[in-house]
Every structure is written in C-alpha cells, then in structure tokens.
From TrEMBL:
Name of the featured protein: 1-acyl-sn-glycerol-3-phosphate acyltransferase
Associated pathway: Lipid metabolism
GO MF term list: acyltransferase activity
Gene: plsC_1
Source superkingdom: Bacteria
Length: 246
C-alpha cells in the first residue's frame, strides 16, 4: 500500500505541475473563482494519497472574511484545512524553498514571513490585512512553530494586529487540530533534524491517520488589544483540543 501511495503522490505532483499550476496561476491573476476549487480539490487529493482522513466538527462563521486561528501540529495542517475551505496561509519564509511544501504553499498564495524578524512584522500584517480586504479567508498559526499536538503552545499576539487594522466586518474563527489513529492521538509532526522524504514515507506507511478539525465560536475583536485577542483565542483552541482528546 505505501508503494501505491508513493506512486500516486508522484503522479499527482507531476500532473499538478503540468496542468494545474498554469491554470491556477492565470486564475489567481485574473481573480477567477475556479482557483478556489483547484485549491480545495488538490488538497483533498493529497490527503487521500498520503492517507489522511479529514473529519471536521462545526464550521467557520458565515460572515466573511474569516481570520482563522489554529494550533499547529504539522505541515499536513495546511492541506487538511485547505481541503475544507479555500484559504490563504501565513508561513515562515523558508517554506517557499522547501521541496513539495514550497510548491503547495505558493500554489495557495501563502503570505511568507521572515523568521524572527520583528522589523518585518508591520509589512507582513499589512499583507495579511490586504488578504482580508480582498475578501479571502486567512489562516495563522500563532504558536509560531509546530508541536507534537499534545497541547497548545502560547499564542504570539503579533499578527492579531492585522485583524485590528482591517476596516470591515470580519470574524476571528478559532480552530483546533488533532491527529489520531481513530482512537488515540498520533504524532505526524516533521521537526528537529528529520528530513522531509523519509518523514513523508513514514506517513504513507502509517496510513489511516484521522485529522480531526474543530471550529469554535467566532470571537469579537472590537475593543480588545492584540494580547487579549491572542489569550482568548488560545484558551478556546486549548479547550477544543482537550475536548477532542478526552
């Protein structure tokens, strides 16, 4: 089975480079709605090929755009979330150069931020605010790094300035992600000195991974500073994660 998954993965990536990338590039430049179907359809295919079954609970708020705030377990969070909704993500700048992941990130219009560069935060927040003004839903992982998914790391408040600078109606939408084998949590993270291809191969060999995604109630942001918003969102994401683990 993992060999079939590996063959399907290579075939899907090759087909994407030949057919989807040119269409998606034109669609994004011209604002065609088909870009959203391409994104969600391709990410659903990737989840199937790798062996991840996405199980959502709840939904994003009806009012758009949505500022989605989630815990971060692995790079697979991106394809899992994007298989449900057409989303724009915030990622560290080095992701753009990663094999496979960089391609997926660029295909989805990811906003890249230099790691540890505080002077670039205002520019990044301006770009994020521009995404919201364009009517697109945005995802940030305010932990600033991935984790084993056992608990939620402290949320950094820096990019909550983007939602406060937005001058229209928007919703802060908390989301919690948990990976299980159907019963118990499993570690699908890529971290430390792991190289990507062996990590991807281990995922394919494992197969049968369930990615549970819970969406919480929208959080009002009027009258709150970025630290208060980060703390309130973190508390709700942590509560959802603990409920899923329970």
């Amino acid at each position: 089975m993992p060999y079939i998954r590996a063959f399907a993965f290579v075939a899907a990536m090759a087909a994407a480079f030949v057919f989807l990338v040119p269409i998606q590039t034109i669609a994004r430049r011209r604002g065609w709605a088909v870009q959203h179907s391409i994104q969600t359809g391709f990410c659903r295919l990737m989840c199937i090929v790798i062996g991840i079954k996405v199980a959502p609970a709840g939904a994003l708020p009806a009012s758009r755009p949505r500022f989605v705030v989630s815990n971060h377990v692995s790079w697979t969070d991106i394809i899992a979330l994007a298989s449900l909704y057409p989303l724009v993500f915030l990622a560290k700048s080095e992701v753009a150069g990663w094999p496979v992941l960089g391609f997926l990130a660029r295909l989805q219009g990811t906003v890249f931020v230099p790691r540890g560069s505080r002077k670039d935060i205002p520019l990044v927040n301006a770009a994020l605010c521009g995404v919201l003004r364009g009517g697109r839903d945005l995802v940030v992982f305010p932990e600033g790094t991935s984790s084993a998914g056992v608990d939620v790391l402290p949320f950094k408040p820096a990019h909550f300035d983007a939602i406060q600078a937005y001058d229209g109606a928007a919703a802060i939408a908390p989301a919690a992600i948990l990976y299980t084998d159907g019963a118990r949590p499993v570690d699908v993270g890529w971290y430390g000195d792991m190289t990507f291809l062996p990590h991807l191969w281990s995922l394919m060999k494992r197969g049968g991974v369930h990615c549970r995604v819970a969406f919480g109630d929208a959080i009002a942001f009027e009258g709150k500073d970025r630290k208060a918003l980060a703390a309130e969102t973190e508390a709700q994401v942590r509560a959802m994660l603990h409920e899923m683990r329970g």
